[in-house]
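@here heads up, posting the sequence + SMILES for the pyridoxal-5'-phosphate run so it's all in one place. Ping me if the SMILES looks off, I pulled it from an old spreadsheet.
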Amino acid sequence: MPQHKVHNFSAGPGVLPQAAIDGAMDALRNFSGTGLSLITVSHRGKEFEAVMEEVVANAKELLGIPAGYSVIFVQGGASLQFYMVALNLLPNGRKAAYLNTGTWATKAIQEAQLVGQVEVVASSEDKNFSYIPKQYAVPADAAYFHITTNNTIYGTELHSDLDSKVPLVADMSSDICSRPVDISKYDLIYAGAQKNIGPAGATMVIVKDELLQGIQKKLPSMLDYRVHVKNGSMYNTPPVFSIFVINETFKWLKSIGGLSEMYKLNLEKAGLLYGEIDENPLFVGTAAVEDRSLMNVCFVLKDKSMDNEFFDYCKQHHLSGLKGHRSVGGFRASIYNAMGRDSVEALVHTMKEFASKYA
Ligand SMILES: Cc1ncc(COP(=O)(O)O)c(C=O)c1O
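bot reply: prediction finished. Complex structure tokens:
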């Protein structure tokens, strides 16, 4: 074990609650009193079936998911959802509307184009995706409107739930469970687990049942939401480890008071860090102030030639995972739900100290 706590700012897989990791370690040794490891027993045994039931119930409770929605866990990451959404929800001869707010949204658009016609209603590519477009019209005949609520690479986030006249589909991979959300405004939400709720391997999908009733096509089973809903995420062997840890994370979220409490803590952590970025003479934030993400805080040194010095300085202070995505450069502090305020304080302290030495 390292002598010092290492503060984990990784963009994903990212930091998880210690309680979830401890729960996972116990279950790897002795799952639910079976005397066997979680990853060696049948997913159809009563012990894992209980986990699956609980994780769905906890998701519904935490996110306030109304009746008429299903929660499923599938594989293939959020990247498979880019295609699956269009395959299921874009009928022949119709078009889908997309808001292009970054690399992941662009990938979602490209995959949907393999299925049918796509209209990009607005894009922030003109300013390297540093803001969220606000002025656009979604065609009334679009089969659905796809948004990315948090842009992990560029550090921008939609801070409220949009009103949409056509079914609203959201990639919430990097801000799921970070704030209370009005689920009734969405028709389908998907989120790869590995940022805010668990290890890589499972993708949570929340889908309005009515939306699935409108699907006319025959689809390959593994790409058909109806198959996964009908089989309670057990059409094939589910990613048992990932789902178990997601449930442990949900239990932790409930123990701290749910999503409104989590949101308060997230606002505090982000406020602390953005405050330092704005005050510190050496650094500058890269995202439009009103669209700043509470999850991924992107910033650069005004003098780029000092980048390596700051990285080394962070390493000496046990701050890990701060390198910005190659398309933005600079630094990205991912401060997901499970990141404690102490870690953000450690980064702020390091930035201050660095400025007192070099400014
Ligand atoms: C917003 C967003 N969508 C999609 C993805 C792709 O996820 P996956 O690697 O699970 O396919 C990512 C990964 O970082 C992401 O941040």
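MO: The CA atoms of residues 81 and 313 lie 39 Å apart.
MO: One more: The domain at 258-358 is CATH 3.90.1150.10 (Aspartate Aminotransferase, domain 1).
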